[in-house]
Every structure is written in structure tokens, then in C-alpha cells.
């Protein structure tokens, strides 16, 4: 017998019992079932029930001022919270910090994929996400306070490798959101910006004998929704609630409805506003030089989102594919209240599917913010300054991207700068040091990243650091900045310093940087010159970066072309002073050197002032059978060539 599943919000919420495990959808300010949250808050305030709920959620779902899950702060309503983000519900975070409720802060992608574990009846999820961070049982297991006792994360070994096992928590109630529902409860999401995890959440609750409550904008006739457009089938849905008033079903808290974000229409996208040349733009500009053409990229909030503006100014956006962990692929990523969505997106994936892609290594580059950083390269963004913010998708993304750029100002709180004649001057230092002796919480493990050979740099307005096996190395300094005056006094530790090079002067001039030419290595041939009198090919790689395999290929092509133009074997002098080779590309680079040495060089010598660069390059070359010494100076390298010629 078919029954009408459309009921009021109060009737639906009345089905939630004391002690229930409740999951809700939403990403930052988008796709939040606000009417259901409001009805749950109203029922508790008026009746004192339901009590002692466990709330499970991925990203923050609120405006940080009391909407969304921020409504659920009332004493007695919640007993436990398992979430990736607490910053969007500050009063709930305060309750956790004051030991009033149990709390777990787990990676967003892990929670997202745990919905599938619950749906399939699996006891949990095996993954390496979270190893050597505060989520690792050796560093706290993701517990946010002393009241939280149960271990939800276990360290296990499989085939000699460390893994984490995250225990799944069976779900009793799923609060989800869609656009349309028919009388059978079939749901479609045509006017939503994202699909998130609604299907997995509904299946998890239903298969556990629970209740699935769907907030929708409208009810349509049975058969109106095409089968392939049904996102959640009616067999999983128990209650359908029409949002009333319509403001309870805003696309996000700042936008009632945008057809471009919903993918219903293609829209003309206005150019992103041109950024003023301030500290934020300097950081974004420097980070942009790490962008991999034809690569897949994720940008975090804060300083990193300026990279999208710079990419637009420099006309490189068509050569990149931006994504969000919420599921958007391509298009123009939205900011503000619409963060996580995209106008004219190529596609929208479920959030758990996007994290499958991220966890499996699909990201070529991520640019993320940093609140604190220490000498070994650890980064903290989850708990600092007495505030429980949460990791969100930071751990999932940073641990699995091929390359990572952390971006942020050197100090925080009141920093003021001036740019004069292409030089940077610090007018007022920030009140808080971001480079600390030890981070309060490890959201990113520098040692683990170095162990894996993951390329990581830390970009600020005045300098750039690189992660090495020995910790942070200062590799670039802005013009006008003095290390002893503007850098070291404002750090709680001294980084490794081996003759850092100047930051690109184009960063500090308010005009286009010709970024595309650098990203595509169009000017690489200009770094190569031939001294016919001495038959020496001079290859100037000073301050050049090998960021991706295509850079190695482009350099090989440029060298081979220059050698062929001479019509004979040449002696090569290679300046690698300040040349940065990504940790995972040393072997590719050495293969290229072995090829040109065998086929085009007579004799060769190379030099670099950085001992770390010399040692790593020598080791990689020797693995290729090249007993090549990397000298400390140009003079020593030239003397070597002369000795080889005399022999």
C-alpha cells in the first residue's frame, strides 16, 4: 500500500528518539536542510526531547553565527559529535572544549566514505589518511577533549605497512536535502549546487533500520522525475518535508538561487576582480608559479583562493582544472557563501567519490592555508589560539596531493607592508608568530611528507621555505627583506639556510607577470647559450623549478635541440644554483641527464651552492652510473672541465 510521505517538519522530527545517531548534509553554507535543523531545535527547546543525540557530519554546515548545525548547541541535546569541522558551529565547539559533550574531529573525506561503510554493513574503513597527524592513535586518535574515551581510530599493519582503521558508527536518522520529491519519495537535485553524500547517508540510515527525512523545495507528480535523474530512490526515504518558508531552502546563506551554480544553464562569467598588490596577492602570485599546466588542482580558503584570481589575471585558467572536495570539477570556482560550488562546472561528483579521487592520488597540486608551522614542516590548521576549528578536508587533501603549497602571511594579526620600487618593506609586524617551536596540533606531518618524498613549499609574502629531510630550508627571500632583520627574529626556530635566491622580482611589480610563458617553459631556450670558441654549452638553471615531469621533458628537448644545432658533441656547464627539483622528480631528472650525457655531451660539470641540492642530485646521478660531482661554485666547475680536457 502506497502512502504519502509528505509531512510537516515537526511531524518528521518527532520520529527522532532519545540517544539517536543523526547525520546531516551540508557543505560550509550550501545544501543545508535548514528547516529540519530549525524544527529539531524548536522541539528540544519546547519539550526537552530528543536528548543525548550523536551528530555525525562532514564539513561545517552553518554560518558560524547560529544557523545550520549551530542551532544544536543547547545543553542536553547533543551527547557526542563526530565532525570534520567545528568552526561553523562555535557554540557546539565551545561545549566540546568545555568537556560538556564528547567530540571527535576526523578527516572530512574519511567521514564521507564512512557513510558508504555504514550503508554496506562494513565495520569501518581502512585508509592511510591521518597517519602521523593528531588523528593517529599515537597522537590522540582525533579526540577533542578528556571526556571522550572510546577509540574510533586504530593503528593496524597490513603487509608490513601502517594503516588506520576508522570504526563506523551505525546511523539512526539521516537529515538530507534535495530539490524535488514525488509522492513515492524519489528525490532529484536539479536546483542544488552540490550532491554531497545524500545517497550514501540515506542508504546508511535505511539499512540500519533508521529514518530518512528529506527536505525539498517542491513536490511533483509521480513519474515526473526521470529514472536517471533520481538521486535518492523513494525506497530509502521515509519522510518528505517541504521547506516553509522558501528562505529555509536557500542555495546557501548568501544566495537564494543561482542557475549557473546549479548547472541548469551556462552563464557568462564576469572576470574575477583584479587584486590589489598587497601581501595576499604577493603570496598568491608566488604560489601560482607552482601551478601544473593541464593539472588537477584544489585550492583552500584564505590566502590560497587568491591563486584563482591571479590565474585569471594571467590568462592561465584555460590550462588548469580546478576542483573542490565538495565534488565540483572544472568551471569557475565560487567563493564566499558559495564556496565549494562552481559556475559552469564540467561535472559534479558525490563528495565521497571526489575523496576517492583525492585519496587515490588524483590531485596534481593543492594550495592550502597554514595557521602554524614548525621547524620540521608540521602545519596546524585545526586547533590553535584556543579555538577548535577542525581539519575539514585538509588532511585528506594535503597527504595525498602530488605536490603541496602552504600559503599564508609570515606573521598574523596587524601585519602591514609597503611595496616601493619593486621592494618589500615591513611597516608593522603581525602580533602573532606563525613559525613556532612546536605546533599545537599536527594537521600535516612534515616528517611523514619528507619520508614519502612529497614536494612541499611554504609561501609567505617575504620568503619561501622548502621541506627537506632535515626540516625547513629557506630558499627564497623577497627584495628589500633582510634575513637577520625581517625573518629570523620573528621565528621561534632557525631554518636551514644555504644561499637562498631572491624571490622573482615580477611578483612585486603591479603589471602582468607573463606567468603562462613560465608555466609552459616557453622561455627555457633562453637559459641555454653556446660558446663556440670553447665548445661549451652553458645551461643556466638558476632559480628554475622542476615541478612536474613535463618540466624535465621540456628541459631535455631544449638541451637536445641546442646540442643538435652545434652539429657535434659539446662540453656542458650547468648552473643549478637555487634550482629546485621536486623530491619525487630527482630520478626523472637524473634519467634526463643520463640521456644527454650519453648522446650529446663530451664532458660536463655542474654546480650549486646548496649542500642539500648537491647531495641529492649526486645521489640520483650515481644511481644512473654517472659518477658526477656537483661543485659548490662556478669556478670549481670550470676548473673541473679544464682538467678533464687536459686529461
Could you characterize what this model shows?
With 647 residues, the chain is an alpha/beta fold. The chain is built from 17 helices and 40 strands. The strands form twelve sheets. An eight-stranded mixed β-sheet has the order 15-14-20-25-30-31-32-33. It has a seven-stranded parallel β-sheet with strand order 4-3-2-1-8-11-13, with helices on both faces. Strands 34-35-37-39-40 form a five-stranded mixed β-sheet, sandwiched between helices. Helix 14 runs parallel beside helix 15 (586-599). It is elongated, with a radius of gyration of 27 Å.
| Distinct helical segment count | 17
Largest sheet: 8 strands, mixed
* Structural class assignment: alpha/beta
Overall 3D shape: elongated
The separation of the N and C termini measures 97 Å
Q: Uncertain regions: pLDDT < 50 for 5+ in a row? A: none
Q: What oligomeric state best describes the polypeptide chains here? A: single chain
Strand order across the largest sheet:
15-14-20-25-30-31-32-33
* Number of E strands: 40
Helix percent band: 25-40%
State which percent range the strand residues make up: 15-25%
Taking all residues together, what is the mean pLDDT? 94
Amino acid at each position: 500500500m502506497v502512502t504519502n510521505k509528505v509531512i510537516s517538519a515537526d511531524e518528521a522530527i518527532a520520529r527522532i528518539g532519545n540517544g539517536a545517531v543523526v547525520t546531516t548534509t551540508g557543505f560550509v553554507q550550501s545544501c543545508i536542510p535548514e528547516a529540519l535543523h530549525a524544527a529539531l531545535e524548536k522541539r528540544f527547546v519546547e519539550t526537552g526531547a530528543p536528548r543525548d543525540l550523536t551528530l555525525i557530519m562532514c564539513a561545517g554546515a552553518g554560518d558560524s553565527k547560529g544557523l545550520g548545525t549551530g542551532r544544536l548547541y543547547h545543553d542536553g541535546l547533543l551527547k557526542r559529535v563526530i565532525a570534520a569541522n567545528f568552526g561553523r558551529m562555535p557554540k557546539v565547539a565551545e561545549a566540546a572544549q568545555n568537556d560538556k559533550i564528547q567530540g571527535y574531529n576526523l578527516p572530512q573525506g574519511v567521514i564521507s566514505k564512512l557513510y558508504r561503510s555504514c550503508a554496506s554493513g562494513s565495520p569501518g574503513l581502512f585508509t592511510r589518511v591521518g597517519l602521523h597527524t593528531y588523528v593517529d592513535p599515537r597522537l590522540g586518535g582525533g579526540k577533542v577533549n578528556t571526556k571522550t574515551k572510546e577509540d574510533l581510530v586504530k593503528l593496524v599493519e597490513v603487509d608490513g605497512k601502517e594503516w588506520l582503521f576508522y570504526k563506523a558508527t551505525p546511523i539512526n536518522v539521516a537529515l538530507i536535502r534535495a530539490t524535488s520529491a514525488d509522492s513515492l519519495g524519489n528525490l532529484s537535485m536539479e536546483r542544488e549546487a552540490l550532491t554531497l553524500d545524500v545517497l550514501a547517508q540515506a542508504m546508511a540510515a535505511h539499512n540500519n533500520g533508521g529514518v530518512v527525512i528529506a527536505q525539498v523545495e517542491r513536490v511533483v507528480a509521480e513519474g515526473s522525475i526521470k529514472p536517471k535523474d533520481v538521486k535518492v530512490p523513494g525506497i530509502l526515504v521515509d519522510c518528505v518535508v517541504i521547506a516553509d518558508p522558501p528562505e529555509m531552502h536557500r542555495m546557501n546563506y548568501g544566495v537564494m538561487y543561482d542557475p549557473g551554480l546549479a548547472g541548469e544553464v551556462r552563464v557568462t562569467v564576469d572576470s574575477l576582480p583584479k587584486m590589489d598588490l598587497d601581501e595576499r596577492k604577493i603570496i598568491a602570485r608566488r604560489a601560482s608559479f607552482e601551478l601544473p599546466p593541464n593539472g588537477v588542482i584544489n585550492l583552500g580558503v584564505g590566502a590560497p583562493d587568491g591563486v584563482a584570481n591571479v590565474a585569471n589575471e594571467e590568462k592561465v585558467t584555460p590550462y588548469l582544472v580546478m576542483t573542490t572536495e565538495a565534488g565540483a570539477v572544472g568551471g569557475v570556482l565560487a567563493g564566499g557563501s558559495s564556496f565549494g560550488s562552481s559556475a559552469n562546472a564540467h561535472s559534479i561528483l558525490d563528495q565521497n567519490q571526489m575523496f576517492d579521487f583525492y585519496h587515490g592520488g588524483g590531485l596534481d597540486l593543492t594550495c592550502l592555508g597554514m595557521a602554524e608551522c614548525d621547524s620540521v614542516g608540521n602545519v596546524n590548521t585545526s586547533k590553535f589560539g584556543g579555538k577548535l576549528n577542525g581539519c575539514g578536508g585538509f588532511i585528506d587533501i594535503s597527504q595525498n596531493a602530488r605536490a603541496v603549497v602552504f600559503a599564508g602571511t609570515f606573521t598574523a594579526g596587524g601585519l602591514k607592508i609597503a611595496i616601493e620600487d619593486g621592494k618589500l618593506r615591513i611597516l608593522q609586524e603581525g602580533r602573532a608568530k606563525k613559525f613556532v617551536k612546536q605546533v599545537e596540533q599536527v594537521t600535516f606531518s612534515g616528517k611523514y611528507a619528507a619520508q614519502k618524498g612529497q614536494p612541499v613549499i611554504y609561501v609567505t609574502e617575504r620568503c619561501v621555505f622548502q621541506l627537506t629531510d632535515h626540516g625547513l630550508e629557506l630558499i627564497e627571500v623577497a627584495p628589500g627583506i633582510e634575513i637577520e632583520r625581517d625573518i629570523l627574529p620573528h621565528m621561534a626556530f632557525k631554518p636551514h639556510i644555504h644561499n637562498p635566491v631572491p624571490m622573482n622580482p615580477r611578483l612585486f611589480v603591479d603589471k602582468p607577470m607573463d606567468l603562462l610563458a613560465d608555466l609552459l617553459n616557453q622561455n627555457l631556450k633562453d637559459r641555454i647559450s653556446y660558446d663556440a670558441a670553447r665548445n661549451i654549452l652553458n645551461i643556466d638553471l638558476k632559480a628554475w623549478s622542476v615541478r612536474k615531469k613535463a618540466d624535465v621533458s621540456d628541459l631535455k628537448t631544449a638541451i637536445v635541440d641546442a646540442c643538435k644545432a652545434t652539429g657535434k658533441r659539446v662540453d656542458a656547464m650547468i648552473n643549478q644554483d637555487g634550482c629546485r627539483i621536486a623530491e619525487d622528480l630527482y630520478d626523472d631528472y637524473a634519467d634526463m641527464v643520463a640521456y644527454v650525457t650519453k648522446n650529446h655531451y663530451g664532458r660536463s660539470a655542474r654546480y650549486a651552492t646548496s649542500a642539500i641540492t648537491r647531495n641529492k642530485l649526486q645521489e640520483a646521478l650515481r644511481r644512473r652510473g654517472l659518477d658526477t660531482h656537483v661543485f659548490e661554485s662556478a669556478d670549481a666547475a670550470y676548473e673541473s672541465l679544464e682538467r678533464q680536457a687536459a686529461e
